[in-house]
Amino acid sequence: MSSTSDKKIEFIKDLSQNDFDLFNDAVKSSEFLQTYSWGEFQKNVYSGVFRYGLKVNGELVVIATFIKKLLPFKKAYLYSPKGPIINCKVQNRNCEFLNIFLDGVINEHSNVLFLRIEPEYQIKNPKYQIQKTIDIQPAKTIRLDLLKTEDNLLALMHQKTRYNIRLASKKGLVVREGKLDDFNLFWRLMQETGERDSFRLHSRSYYERMLKELNNRVDLKVKMFIVFDEDVAIAVGLFVFCGEVATYLHGASASVGRNLMAPYLLQWTMIKVAKKNNYKYYDFYGVDEKKWPGVTRFKRGFGGNEIECCGTFDLVVSSLWYKIYNTIRMLKRK
């Protein structure tokens, strides 16, 4: 425990779920990647998951989940997806408390070369070099305001999107919530879409665990919804419900029956589900016209506001090792 000026500063090494939940509620955070439950899920994938916090005069002002990623030579780095989360009522933009917090994290790990963070706004640190790096989580997304009426939401969509929703609605398609027993349908469509559109998938067990472990947690819920043409699954999506936001996380569709426009019906159905359950926003989770032109065009068709964050940054602890890391990284890409 230490103090600076007239404030009592305390770095917390292992935040409880109650601390996490209360803080996220207080600051109205809907970042599902920074929930306690998502951290528990990540323990299946990575060698270490750490939850830290900083208290000022007994009140939490910063929290973060960090994932430890191992590197050669017994080195590592820590990654905080969409974090740290800062209480803006207490923390001003001079980053004083955030930098104290980041110092505390670094002091807990002697072999860490850098911290990879995705803060809400770009930060400055007098002690460590901060480097912009390739974005891990999408820096740009689209959000719909679900306080609008269904008619208003439809009116703000692209004309072709409205047409495709109405077309799909006339084709006798059925959208229903999937169960774990339906996972093979989900996985088949994900593999088909990944091969067709050339994008990388997580492992089968990753998605299966996500659905099994996060289906009905207190701080977030992951749900699968499937579109059927008679008894054939032709589109599927994974959706995260957290805080005030419903998020479209993963989706796939069959190559056959594409003229039925099932993905449009799936999105419109989920927008209505989120609205009915009193979520304030529907998030399409990532647009990028260069990386994903087709997906971006599809998502933009639903209207909404484009939101861009500052992206992913590395807080460099060891300049020499960081240069070595980036050199090896570039060579692997060639």
Write out key terms for the chains shown.
334 residues; alpha+beta; Aminopeptidase; 2 domains; nine-stranded mixed beta sheet; seven-stranded mixed beta sheet; 10 helices; 33% helix; 30% strand
What layout of secondary structure does this protein have?
Layout: E1 2-4, E2 7-12, H1 17-26, H2 36-42, E3 48-56, E4 59-71, E5 75-80, E6 85-86, H3 96-107, E7 112-117, E8 129-132, E9 140-145, H4 150-155, H5 159-169, E10 174-177, H6 183-197, H7 204-213, E11 221-229, E12 232-242, E13 245-253, H8 262-276, E14 281-283, H9 293-300, E15 305-308, E16 313-316, H10 319-333
Parallel strand pairs: 5-7, 13-14
Antiparallel strand pairs: 1-2, 2-3, 3-4, 4-5, 4-6, 7-16, 8-16, 9-14, 9-15, 10-11, 11-12, 12-13
Helix pairs in contact: 5-8
Characterization of this structure:
There is one protein chain. This protein has ten helices and 16 strands. The chain folds into two domains: 2-135 and 310-333, Gcn5-related N-acetyltransferase (GNAT) (Aminopeptidase); 140-308, 3-Layer(aba) Sandwich (Aminopeptidase), CATH 3.40.630.30. It starts with a strand and ends with a helix. The protein is α+β, with helices and mostly antiparallel strands and 334 residues long.
